[in-house]
Structure formats: C-alpha cells, structure tokens
Specification:
The complex is a heterodimer. Chain A contains 21 helices and 17 strands. By secondary structure, chain A is of the alpha/beta class. Chain A has a five-stranded parallel sheet with strand order 12-11-10-13-14, with helices on both faces. In chain A, strands 3-2-4-5 form a four-stranded parallel sheet, with helices on both faces. In chain A, helix 7 runs parallel beside helix 10, helix 15 packs across helix 16 and helix 19 packs across helix 21. The longest helix of chain A is centred in the C-terminal third of the chain and has 18 residues. Chain A starts with a strand and ends with a helix. Chain B has 16 helices and 14 strands. The radius of gyration of chain B is 22 Å and the shape is globular. Strand 1 of chain A pairs antiparallel with strand 3 of chain B, so a sheet runs across the interface.
Chain lengths: 522, 427
C-alpha cells in the first residue's frame, strides 16, 4: 500500500477515456461501480467540453455482485450500441471490475454486435493514466491500421516526387496540456515546410482515419508518453519513419524542422535562417540580465520536464537545480537529461517527496504541474505550470501553445512574468524595512493577498533542526537573516547552519552569518 | 403548528404518489465524496481511504479541493502485491497508519474508509480499526465505515461516517435530563444560528458531529434527535437503537421547512406556542422579505432534478411552495419514505418522482421537457448548457450554507443566478 495525499496520474482507464473522448465515432463501455462516473467531470468541467465523454459505465452496486454483474455488463454494451451507434466499441474495466473478473472483452465479443470491438486490458493496480492512454491508442491503431499492413518483408515504395510529403501527427488527446494549440502551431510549421498533415490522432480522428495512418510518409510523435508505442508499431509494420524531436523551445523547434526536412527528404529552406521567435532577443535584451542563474526546479511529465530544462538552461540562462518526473516509464530519459545538468533526477509519484525536494532546494522558480503550483504557493515561490496534471486554468481562452516558435514566445512570457522584475527586486533588497515595501511582500503584480502573514516575534534565540541539534540562532542574526531577500533566504539559512554545524558553532551570530556567506560565495 | 408562511396554498401531497424506479447507469458520486466536507467539519479527524488510485483521484477531482495545503484525508492505495498476497494487507495498513500518525500527531480520530476494491477483496476494516485503536489508545480513536460506490451514493457516505460515530458515542447517564441532538453536518454559521434559536426556546441542543472528536455528545433514552439532513437513514437507526427518539419533521430548508423543523422540536419539548412564535418571528419575517425578490424571478419557471444528494425532495418542496416553481421531475438516488413523509405530503399533487437512475433515459426526458432550469451533477452541467439548457450544479447545494431562515434567500439565489446570468449575457 502506498500512502497518497495527491496523485499525479489518474488510473489507467481514465487514460483510455482521454483517447475515447478525443476521437470521433468511438464509444467506451466501462465495467465500473457507481461513483467512477466522476471521471466525466474531468472533461466537462476542467476542459469545459460541451459534450459528455462517450463512455457508458455499468455502475454496478453491491446487490449486483450477488447476482450477475456479467449480465448487467452485456445489457450495458447492447444498450450503448443501440443508442450511440459507434464506429468502434472500446471495452474495459476499472479497478473494482478488474477484481470481479467478468472478462468484459469476451462478453462483448460474444454479443455479436456489428461493430469492431477493441478490448482493453489496463491493470489498475500496476499502471496509471498515461500508460492507459498509450496502450489504448496502440490497441486502436493496431485494430484499425493492422488489416492494411503490407506483407512482412515488403519495403516501402519511395515517395512519388510529384507529391508533397505527408505525415501523421500522433499523440494529442482530450485533457492534454495545451494539445489543442500545439497541433495548430505544428501544422503551421509543417505547412511552411511543404509537408501535408495526413491524419491527426487521436484528437479528432475517427476509427476509419486510423485505418489510413499507413498512407502517410512518416509520423510525428508530439507526445511520446501517449503515442510512442503506437508510432513504434507503425514504424515496424508500415516502415514509416518517425520524427522524435518534440518542438518545445527555440532550439528544439529548429531541430524539429531539420529532422522533418531530413525524414521528408526536402529542404528546410528559410525557416531555419530567420529569427522566428522573440524569445532569443528578449532573452538577450538587458532587462533579462536579472534572469541570469535564477535557480529553477522542474518537475513534470518526462517530455515537458526535459524540454523545460533545456529552455531554462540554454535559452533563458537559468540554473536548473532540480529535475524530475512522475513518468516512471520515461525515467531513463529524464535521468540522462539530469546528468547533463550535474543532477540526480527525482523520479517519484509521491507528492510529499517532491515537496521535500523543493523545500530543501529553495529554488527561485518552480516549473511544474498543478501539484507543484500548490507546493510553490505555500512556500511563496513563483511557479508556472508546464505539464499535466491540469486544472481549469490550464485551458486558457487565448491561443497558448507550448510548441513551435509561438510556443517559445508563450513560454518566455509565462515563465518570466511570475518572477520579481529587475528593479523591484533591487529596491526590495535595499529598503527591506519600508513599511509599505514589507519584507514578506510578494511581487506587486501578484496582489496583496499573495503576501505571507506576519512573523511571530522572535525569541532571544531559536533552536535549529529538532532536539538533537544544539545550534541556535541569536536574535540579531535571525533579524539580519530576514534582510536577505526571501527567495534566497532559505538557502542562506541552510548554508549558515551547515557552516555552523561543521565548525561546531553553538550560537549563530551576525558574524557567523557573514562568515558563512563568504565561505559559500567562493 | 404555525400557519404556513407566504400564504402557501394547501397541497394534496405526494405521500402515496407513484415513483418511477429506474435501474441503469447512475451518474452520481460515491460516498467517498463526503470526506470533502467531513474532513473540514471535524477538525481533529483524519480520513484514510483504503482503496485504489481511482479513489484518490476521485476525491482530489470531485470538488477541486486542492486549495487545502495539507488536507486531513489521504488514500492508502492498494497495489498489485497487496492483491497477490505477497504483502499482508493488514501489516501494510498498520505501516501506513503508523507513518500517518507520526506525520500528523494532531489527529485524535482516524476513520479507515472502505472503498469498492477494499470491499470486494473483503479487507476487514472493522477489525483493523479495533486493532489500531488498541495500539494508539488513548490519544487516537480509530473507527471505520464504508464510502464505497457499491454500497453508498454521494451523501450516504456522511450517513455511514456518522453511523460509525453514533455507535461510538458516550452513553448518557441515566440521570441526565432531556436533550436535543441535531444530527447531520451543517456549516458552522448555520449551527451557530440554530444554537441561538434553541437557547431562546429553552431547549438544550447539541450538534452531531461536533467540531472536535473529544466533544461528541452523549446519547441515551432521554435524547430526542432532529435530522438536519434527509440522507441519514443508518445514523438514525443506530441512534434509535441506542434509545434515542427521532422527532419527525420536514427539513430546515426555506421559511416553512425551518419553522416546521424548529416547531417539531419545540412541540416535543413542550415549548409554549406563543413563546415559539415570538422566538422565530424575526427570522421568519426577514427570510420572507428576502425571498420576495426571488419569487418574482422564479415563479412559474419549470425545474428538473437529476438525482444527486437526496436533498432533492426538500428542495423541490421549497421551490414549489415558497417560490412558485413548477416541478417537472424530482429525481433522487434514494427516497426514504419515513424520513421524507412530511416532505412528500407537502409536495404538489402529481409531482413526477423518480428514484435511482438510467442517465440516458433521464436525459431523453429532460430534453423532451425543455425545463427552464436543470439541477444536475458536474458531469452533465456543461453538456446541457451547450444544448441550451440552464443548469444548477447540485454539488453547490451541499457545499453552501442553505439551511435556516438567514440562508433561505441564499438558497433561492442559487437557483435564480443561472437564469439571471442568461439574461445578462449579450454576446
């Protein structure tokens, strides 16, 4: 058993719902107890979808367990087919139905309905949402594209040079972080390169569209967590190469363009020569000097975490002090990326562990999910959400992609705006005791309510680190510490205490504070 | 009893009216959802769900409760190795509870909350609660109840929780005088208002659940209780088994409901009718005045209830009788005939009542009827709005103080707002 306060990912059947809801003409019959229908509100409330997700839940109750849940399931499948007339039926079970072992896939097939049935085995006690989405998409692609596969051993015919190259965009789903806008941006890039978009899937695709996936020259994998597995199968089965670079950030977008051009066998043209994003110039403008070396903590799904670290480090001049992911399936990629920044990656789906890491590192900016937004809010650290899990605010009314050159513009704005602006930062440090410019004041644009409550009056000395530690802070040293800007104060406190402990100093004085500052600045 | 407020026309009632009973997909929350408000109500209690990732995700999604820095609930997520028998589930639970109590030494009352998977694998949480109670006594009491979807619908989770707590209440001493117990979680402000009224009536009233684990009231044969919520069937049964008497009454929604609810208690305790009238007069008058404005906005408007919290019948009664709304369909997950007897009598004759749900069929009926306002859950609201229907999220009726005189107009406002909003929006 795992003690969980908040969870990064939903169970795997919610991942399947993200695929079913993204597509057209698909209906998902889920063997599940009453209550599991809560998942509908993720789509209708968080994403503000105007339609109910195409899901029928059997909603069995205790009294059904004694009689026949299998019969209930069959009735639900028949009714759902009659009512919705889908082009494909997805069949699955949620965590509780998995325990009662009714074999939903077998039961559905036995009904002999005139519709393709795709049974899903999503082990709820081992796997999670993204895996469920990936598996569901893979099963659907196999089921519909599979029958059109060329005979094994046949090589793919070269593209007719009179025809523009074409590709599929794979991975966008319902409830995805900015998927809606990313595909618009990537389409624009491809259009300018002279590449046609054949099918976008799963978002907006019908089962019949999946059957035609093999016709494209190559696949673009926008979200590896969701489409990586399907794209690999398409590569093996249809000999379709895949573009793996995820175009988040200026550098990655340029690499993406180069990779598409290479895979498509065309010239990238002017797209790589002109400055298409404002990010590079904004980042070089003098105002951005204050961004230099800002300590940033990053935690997200693997794709967004790796991309964010690269942008933070290479394009904004931040210092990445923590990098991690909850996507265990992609832990290796994140570990490798973290090594590049001299870090040990944090691979965890335990919210409390992430919180502890942020508390220990005292970063100046957190780039994370809704979970980290809550952690950062509590610590008074600026934060921007860069990845699912999402919240209603992560579906902005405005166009707000993460990918492509416009995505880089959006990223510059949304990461930089929560930070203290240059002059404000200096004035706050210089005139710390100004009564209107309170010590705990947050950046002025965050409003008065962002300010922390006033501190309790300091005792003469303060014990550090529990009973076994014998280090105390003298009151004047504690007062002096509070003159250090809040966003580095935690670090200053930690460094000073470490310094004191190493030297056996029992009481930290103002002198100790500055000795430690001098020691750590070397 | 008092004359009905607002000159309400006498109704023939729905006491014996036929009910459409449906069995199909139920678009309702499970009982775990009750944790969302219960964990704020009892300030030193902690709710540990023993369940799956779905349970954890439900609670964090259901009400957007992540505003709480460190909530007083968590989930012990059952994993593959627990199912395969590799790990003894009880040992695992003990380990999780130990970690939890170490982290939250402020906890005085711990609920182990059963879920669908824990029920299906027959994990005996009552034995676990007993064992853990012995371990952590006297600083922490450990109780258990089931909030599973296979056994409970939405507000029935509160019922199950309070039932567990009711069985554990101290026994009133034989010499104790007569006392009133108000049963069901209420907003603190509502509790304080009722408390002042009962004091003015000379009735000693306690509220259950209390705000702190150590302050739970005693119960015995001299206890009379008044249900503040219509979904407390099991809790009432346990209290009755412990010798307490239920005072039959409608529920304290609207002027009429509040007056009758308070009046039933007053009658039970032999309060002089003149004194009762003088105590409630000011509140009645204020509420009636505040409701007038909403009556003009809601009169004649047609309303359709999807089943959700079991509050549907009292709400429909209030909207029909005090605001003049027309009831198209009043759906409820469960109709407790006995506890709702007074309410059903007051419903306009011929009201269409439904119990249980087949959501697709009910949606068909709703679309055909084209009501002016639909009361439904979060999964249905936006899709119905997109179809052009005005909706009121039912969950707000649970998360808002709505009982009593001072909240009667706030309650009416919840129904008026979606309609008003539509008249304001031009674009």
């Amino acid at each position: 058993m795992q003690l969980t306060v908040w969870t990064y990912e939903a169970p795997p059947h919610v991942g399947a719902m993200r695929i079913a809801t993204a597509m057209q003409g698909v209906h998902y019959v889920l063997h599940a107890p009453q209550g599991d229908t809560y998942a509908d509100l993720l789509f209708t409330m968080i994403e503000r979808r105007a339609k109910r997700p195409p899901v029928t839940y059997t909603t069995f109750q205790a009294r059904d367990l004694g009689s026949d849940t299998a019969e209930l399931f069959k009735t639900s499948v028949r009714d759902a087919y009659e009512r919705f007339r889908p082009e494909a039926l997805l069949i699955g079970a949620s965590c509780t139905a998995e325990l009662i072992q009714d074999d939903p896939g077998g039961l559905a097939r036995a009904l002999g309905l005139p519709v393709p049935i795709v049974p899903l085995e999503l082990p709820s006690y081992q796997r999670k949402e993204n895996w469920g989405a990936s598996e569901t998409f893979y099963q659907l692609v196999r089921a519909f594209a599979g029958p059109h596969a060329p005979a094994p051993g046949m090589s793919r015919a070269p593209r007719d040079s009179a025809r523009r190259p074409s590709c599929n965009l794979l991975g966008p789903t319902a409830l995805g972080f900015r998927h809606r806008d990313d595909i618009v941006e990537v389409r624009k890039l491809l259009e300018r390169l002279g590449v046609d978009v054949h099918i976008v899937a799963p978002l907006g695709a019908r089962p019949a569209d999946l059957a035609r996936l093999g016709e494209a020259d190559f696949n673009v994998v926008l979200y590896p967590e969701i489409a990586g597995q399907a794209a690999q199968w398409l590569a093996r089965t249809f000999g379709q190469p895949m573009v793996k670079t995820v175009p988040i950030g200026v550098g990655a977008t340029r690499e993406f363009i180069a990779e598409v051009a290479r895979v498509a066998g065309i010239a990238a043209g002017g797209l790589l020569e002109t400055e298409e994003s404002r990010l590079p110039w904004y980042s070089r403008s003098v105002d951005s000097n204050y961004l230099t070396g800002k300590r940033v903590f990053i935690f997200a799904d693997a794709t967004h975490a790796i991309a964010a670290a690269r942008i933070a480090s290479d394009e904004l001049g931040f210092k990445v002090v923590g990098l991690g992911t909850y996507s265990r399936e992609f832990a290796r990629d994140v570990r490798e990326a973290a090594k590049g920044y001299g870090l040990e990656a944090l691979i965890s789906d335990d919210y409390l562990e992430v919180e502890a890491a942020i508390a220990a590192l005292q970063p100046e900016l957190v780039l994370g999910t809704q979970m980290e937004r809550h952690i950062a809010k509590r610590f008074g650290i600026p934060c921007t959400v860069i990845s699912a899990p999402v919240h209603v605010q992560d579906f902005p009314a405005r166009y707000s992609p993460q990918m492509g050159f416009e995505g880089a513009n959006v990223i510059f704005d949304t990461w930089v705006h929560p930070l203290m602006m240059g002059l404000e930062e200096h004035l706050l440090t210089m005139f710390r005791d100004d009564f209107e410019f309170r010590d705990e004041a947050a950046p002025s644009h965050l409003g008065a309510e962002a300010a922390a409550p006033p501190r309790a009056p300091d005792p003469e000395t303060r014990q550090v680190g529990g009973v076994e530690s014998n280090i105390v802070w003298a009151r004047d040293a504690e007062t002096e510490l509070h003159k250090v800007p809040f966003f580095v104060r935690g670090k200053a406190r930690r460094n000073t205490e470490t310094f004191a402990r190493e030297r056996g100093v029992a009481t930290i004085t103002v002198e100790t504070l500055y000795d430690a500052k001098s020691h750590f600045s070397r | 009893m008092n004359a009905p407020a607002l000159g309400i026309a006498p109704a023939a009632g729905c006491g014996d009216a036929p009910v459409l009973r449906e069995r199909g997909q139920r678009e309702v929350f499970c009982g775990l959802t009750g944790i969302v408000w219960l964990h704020r109500k009892i300030q030193d209690a902690f709710f540990l769900v023993v369940g799956s990732r779905t349970c954890a995700h439900l609670i964090q999604s259901a009400a957007g409760v992540m505003i709480f820095a460190e909530p007083r609930f968590a989930t012990a997520i059952i994993e593959e190795r627990d199912l395969a028998g590799l790990a003894d589930a009880n040992e695992e639970l003990d380990r999780v509870v130990a970690r939890l109590i170490e982290r939250r030494p402020d906890i005085r009352l711990l609920f182990l909350v059963g879920s669908c998977p824990s029920e299906v694998i027959k994990l005996d949480l009552s034995r676990a609660a007993q064992r853990l109670s012995e371990t952590y006594s006297p600083s922490v009491r450990v109780l258990n109840y089931s909030g599973s979807g296979i056994e409970t619908t939405f507000t029935q989770g509160e019922d199950a929780c309070l039932a567990a707590l009711a069985a554990d209440l101290p026994t009133a001493a034989p010499g104790d005088g007569r006392s009133l117990l108000v049963v069901g979680a209420l907003a603190d402000i509502v509790e304080d208002q009722f408390s002042r009224i009962f004091t003015a009536l000379g009735i000693e009233a306690r509220f259950f659940p209390a705000r702190r684990a150590g302050d739970m009231p005693a119960v015995g044969p001299n206890t009379a209780f008044l249900l503040a919520q219509p979904f407390l069937a099991e809790t009432a049964r346990i209290l009755e088994a412990r010798g307490a008497t239920r005072i039959a009454a409608p529920f304290p929604l609207g002027v009429e409901g509040t007056t009758d609810w308070l009046g039933a208690a007053a009658a039970h305790f032999g309060v002089d009718p003149a004194r009762f009238d003088s105590v409630v007069a000011a509140g009645q008058e204020r509420a009636a005045r505040a409701l007038l404005r909403y009556r003009s906005e809601l009169q004649g408007k047609r309303i359709f209830f999807f089943p959700d919290s079991q509050l549907e019948v009292p709400l429909a009664r209030f909207l029909a009788r005090e605001l003049g709304m027309q009831l198209v369909e009043v759906g409820s997950p469960y109709l407790h005939r006995q506890h709702l007897a007074e309410e059903l009598e007051m419903l306009p004759a011929g009201t269409m009542l439904s119990e249980g749900q087949d959501v697709d069929r009910q949606l068909d009926r709703c679309r055909a009827a084209r009501p002016d306002l639909v009361v439904c859950g979060l999964g249905l609201a936006n899709p119905l709005e997109a179809e052009g229907m005005a909706t009121k999220w039912s969950i707000e009726l649970i998360f808002t103080p709505i009982q009593g005189y001072e909240q009667a107009a706030d309650l009416a406002e919840l129904f008026a707002r979606p309609l008003t909003r539509r008249t304001r929006l031009v674009a």
